[in-house]
Write a structure and sequence with these properties.
Chain B: The chain crosses the membrane at residues 20-41, 62-81, 101-121, 255-275. The complex is a heterodimer of chains A (366) and B (352). Chain A is mainly α. Helices cover 54% and strands 2% of the residues of chain A. Chain A has helices spanning 10-47, 59-84, 88-139, 152-163, 190-197, 250-296, 312-326; strands spanning 6-8, 303-305. Chain A has a two-stranded antiparallel ribbon. The radius of gyration of chain A is 35 Å and the shape is elongated. Chain B is mainly alpha-helical and 352 residues long. Chain B has 9 helices and 2 strands. A two-stranded antiparallel ribbon of chain B has the order 1-2. Classes of the chains: A mainly alpha (366), B mainly alpha (352).
Amino acid sequence: MAVLKVKFTKNKRDKLAQVLWIVNWISVVTGIILFSLGLFLKVEISKQQEIMPDRQLHMVPNMLIAVGLIACTINFLGGKICHDCVDIAKYLRWKLLMLPYIICTFFFTFCILVGALMCYGMRGELEESLLSGLRDAMRYYKDTDTPGRCFLKRTVDLLQIQFQCCGNNDFRDWFHIQWISNRYLDMSSKEVVHRLRSNVEGKYLVDSVPFSCCNPSSPRPCIQHQVTNSSAHFNYDYATEEPNLWRRGCRQALLEYFTQIMQSIGLTVIITWLFELSVLTGVRYLQTAMENVLRNGNPDSESDGWLLENSFVEMARSNFKIIKNLGKCNQIDISGSDDPNIDVPSSSFAHYGPGNLPTKQIPVYS
Amino acid sequence: MALLKIKFTFQSRVRLAQGLWLLSWLAVIAATLTFSMGVFLKAELHKRSEVMDNTEIHAVPNTLIVVGLASLGINFFAGRICQDALDTTRFPRWKSFLQPYFILSLFFTLLMLVAVIMSYAMKGNLEESLKIGLKNGIRFYKDTDIPGRCFQKETIDRLQMDFRCCGNNNYKDWFEVQWISNRFLDFTSKEVKDRIKSNVDGRYLIDGVPFSCCNPESPRPCIQHQLTNNSAHYNYEYQTEELNLFNRGCREALVSYYMGIMNSIGAGVLSVFILQMSVLVSVRYLQTATEALVGQENTEIETEGYLLEKEVKETIKEKMDTILKFLPINQVDAAAGQGSAEVGEKPATPAS
């Protein structure tokens, strides 16, 4: 009782082999695309590594690169096998390899699905990493004289200019941290001393933002100092003013950017998974059809192809028995098992008397 | 006395045809590259066309595009000719086609060389165009409410940020222009009134620059106002401060960017030119070598191939004569011809 049995004529077998050859090559191309997408994602994450210091984020692009390479090799091999399946003589070369190949492809297909799910699940990790990374980067913005942090100012400025964003959630984040270093503050000035005193931690907080928050599309020259003070600037109302600064927060901007990349990668992975699944099914049918051809003896005859020889339950049962009996190779199991893998010595079926004839009658010439 | 005569055996003719076929396909790829380089350069020039005063520099990419397309045709036909050259029945088809083909091909190949020379020669033109364009851009920076000029602010800001430059020659250009619109100036303020009065044209000039001149590499927060006033900022000396603003002028930045592109394109086009010339020379040799076979029974004999049937001077004289015949100087020519014929006859008669 085979699962999904299909009859294959010689013609159909050849056509199946050809179609599988083409599909395998398409899958090689998708494998290459996946590999390059993984590489691209790795580069993009590395570019922002100063604001996204999480090591775990590199797992997803590494996995994509590995999946892409494995897909290429598996499908390249598959293409070769399918190409050779048209000719019985060449098929015999691959006969022993085909079943392990199918099992490997099955597990690999499963891995691809896991990969696709990881892509979509990466968003949460990304958000967390960005939250802490950006917060620290802004905090150390002023520390251009501290080794190890001296590039953070440039990184944050270029980030805000490139992604058209300001601050973590929005531009008000800059009001809560001291982003002007003490080296550039005139400590003898009354105003500076007053500000420092009015703050619990002695930080110099201003309602100003760095220049990289300025929006070039604004019709007026950038207002970056005393942003909340409507009277400090002529014809300026903080509450109703059109965006002079970037309104978006950098966390949201980066998240959107990476989510877009991940979505397109996820789509490619799903397409690759579908191709792999079809390759798997096709190769399984081809393998069983070719084996049945060999069993029949005639290379041009019709043969059956199936996914599983017996039903799924029976297959699971027989495999389970094999595994169970692997450990009992020295014992004789006389419980009447008819599994061909178990060697049952004939002494357990002794007594060829008239009452215990073997089932097959030997013709007697009288 | 032919120009650059070479003897061709049957084998070398065959090899020439095969080599030419390969060469023509390489040249097709090269022609596509030339075309795409022209398109790329045009796109780059178009991106910043708002700060350029005129579009004369576009002649360079336009020429490259035309030459690229023409080369595709030339090399396609070269491939077809060499395929037919070894078959004497099909080759005579091309006879009347080849003369105009060579003239056109030579013209377009020389045009390639002209394009390369132009790309170097038009540097001055580009610089002038940028000078005027940038000057206008800076002048109309504040006019974000006047239609036709409202985009200048955004253009100049993005240009300065992308190319890391400030002003036309340097940042001091911003001191000579009023870049803050009157809409945002408080005319009741004493400071504003003083500044405007102190200026002959009544403009509000300050020693400040827009935010797009700020250099992100600077270790301190950007100082964009009161740049020349050392006492306005703590621990600041404008004479020694180098990283605060971009030091380069935008004209210099743009010119070096475009000249960089045009230099690399020029090198590429020169190699395409050499390839194209070799294709044309091979086609000419193949043509002359195969034409000598016409009418012969044995197609495997040795023939001679040449570039020109006669010497360069004689060929030019011949061509000039044919051209002059069409002009209304006929009568003078006829009379001169008669005279020379008589002169020619006189020495002949004593000999006979």
